[in-house]
Specification:
The structure is a single chain. By secondary structure, this protein is mainly alpha-helical. It has helices at 2-8, 27-36, 41-54, 61-75, 77-85, 89-99, and strands at 14-16, 22-24, 59-60. The chain has one domain (2-99). A hairpin with a 5-residue loop joins strand 1 (14-16) and strand 2 (22-24). The protein is globular and about 35 Å long.
C-alpha cells in the first residue's frame, strides 16, 4: 500500500534518459526547469505535481518534456506565448527539458 501511494506521488519512479540510462524521477527538476523558462513558482509547482501524477515508471525525458510544455501552455498561456515569440525562447525550453532532465 505504501509503495503504491509513493508511486502515485511520483516517488520511486524511474526516468529513461536520452542515452538509455535510468534515473530516479525528481519533480524538483521539472519545477526548476519551468522556473528557468520564466514560469512563476506557483505555476512551476503545479506543472511538476501534475506531471508527476501522470508519469509512469520508465517514462522517457522526451515524454516528460512534452507533458511539461502541454501543462505550461494550459497554466501560463501569456508567458508561453512570450517564450515562443522570442527568437531563442523555444530552443531554451527545448534544451532545458531534452538535455537536463
Amino acid at each position: 500500500m505504501v509503495l503504491e501511494q509513493n508511486l502515485l506521488k511520483g516517488e520511486f519512479m524511474n526516468v529513461e534518459k536520452k542515452d538509455g540510462s535510468m534515473e530516479a524521477f525528481d519533480k524538483n527538476k521539472i519545477a526548476s526547469g519551468c522556473k528557468k523558462s520564466g514560469a512563476t513558482d506557483v505555476v512551476a509547482k503545479k506543472v511538476a505535481n501534475t506531471v508527476s501524477l501522470k508519469a509512469k515508471d520508465g517514462i522517457s525525458t522526451i515524454e516528460i518534456g512534452e507533458m511539461v510544455i502541454a501543462e505550461l501552455k494550459k497554466l501560463d498561456k501569456r508567458r508561453i506565448r512570450e517564450i515562443f515569440q522570442e527568437p531563442l525562447g523555444f530552443l531554451i525550453l527545448y534544451f532545458l527539458f531534452y538535455f537536463l532532465l
